[in-house]
Amino acid sequence: MSSRSTLSVKEAVARGIARRYRNEAIFRALGLGALLIGLGFLAFFFYTLVGNGYTALEQTRIRLDVELDAAVIDPEATRNPETLRGADYQRLARDALGRLFPEVTSRADLRALYALLSAGAGIELQQLVVNDPAAIGETRTLWLLADDDVDVIVKGQAPRDVPETDRRMDDRQLRWLTALEQQGRVDLQFNRYFFTRGDSRDPELAGIWGATVGSFFMLLVTLALSFPLGVATAVYLEEFAPRNRWTDLIEVNINNLAAVPSIVFGLLGLALFINVFGLPRSAPVVGGLVLSLMTLPVIIIASRAALTAVPPSIREAALGVGASKMQMVLHHVLPLAMPGMLTGTIIGMARALGESAPLLMIGMVAFIVDVPDSPVSPATALPVQVYLWADSPERAFVERTSAAIVVLLLFLLVMNAAAILLRKRFERRY
């Protein structure tokens, strides 16, 4: 009887162990499946983003033999820089294109032919002549910027073999473009404007440099305000503040502020910094102030967690050898907590870099062409630039939107990597 009961117990235990192993295998399989699905979606996202954006690194150009006519550029031969800047360079580029198609004579056809060139062609000729006045009177072979409609056709982003009503270029323009391609006068070259210029209504002239500089000034203001204030607040609350209902109320409000939607901070900045203090709209200094309000709770929470992680024995040892409480905090606790504080600060700054809602509320959605030269100059930011381009109807802005998102993600990746490196660099073992 006892042997049977012993056997039944062993069988029950064996079945229980087998069931637990089976459940564990199912749970691990579900976890692995969820991980693979998440990685699959992430890979698809990056594939789509990079696939749509890498073409923005190239721009279509047309090779033309441009006659830099002195009668058009500097008829009085004064070589005055103001006179050189005011000449009609777009006319010279159009004349060079028109000489390739002498059969085009009517005004309507000439207008359609000249539309193959971008307005940036004249700007490039102007820069050439202003930098090198000796070129006046010469005929130079130059690669000039093509219009965005030509660019999307050459890149294959818009079909050629569709009815004329279904594409932006008519049959005449497509025929002229084909002739230029057959002559080897059309080529895709590196798009330097994407990295060196500000925004533009013309996609071929639009770039992210203005938004990048605006984001830099904004983060500079945010860091200068939020880091010292956040660290000082964390040190006071964790090391010096008495434990009472007022400090508990402050802690609860700090935790609540970390969860407030970012657009609320934008409304606060609009009401306070712009309407009350009269600061300029669409300026990085206002954006930095708003993002500082949004980043402060994150930095305070991360800094307090870093201070809490320092063992009490460090404090007790410092006080035991005669250090004051201030010396104990500044010389012993704060250096050990600094890696965690820096990590929290950089993560908070990365969040601020990707925010667009509060910036829209303070007017940084304005169309800004010039690159800002100070924190009070009109500017936009990278997330807002992405928003503006995504709302544009031109097909050429699609690739620039994707490319700008890739650049923004790279900045975020660099900032998160910097947080990890700083934590490893300054981390101390105790």
Structural features, described:
The protein is mostly helical and 430 residues long. It folds into three domains: 2-54; 57-194, no CATH class; 209-426, Orthogonal Bundle (MetI-like fold). It is built from 18 helices and three strands. It has helices at 2-53, 70-73, 81-85, 89-99, 107-114, 120-131, 148-154, 171-182, 193-196, 209-240, 245-257, 262-276, 284-309, 312-320, 325-353, 357-361, 382-390, 396-426; strands at residues 58-67, 139-145, 186-190. The chain has a three-stranded antiparallel beta sheet with strand order 2-1-3. α4 crosses α6.
CATH topology of the largest domain: MetI-like fold
Helix-residue proportion: 55-70%
- The DSSP helix count reads 18
> What is the mean pLDDT?
88
> Rg, please?
31 Å
Outline:
By secondary structure, this protein is mainly alpha-helical. The protein has 18 helices and 3 strands. It folds into 3 domains: 53 residues; 138 residues, no CATH class; 218 residues, MetI-like fold.
What topology emerges from the helices and strands here?
Elements: H1 2-53, E1 58-67, H2 70-73, H3 81-85, H4 89-99, H5 107-114, H6 120-131, E2 139-145, H7 148-154, H8 171-182, E3 186-190, H9 193-196, H10 209-240, H11 245-257, H12 262-276, H13 284-309, H14 312-320, H15 325-353, H16 357-361, H17 382-390, H18 396-426
Antiparallel strand pairs: 1-2, 1-3
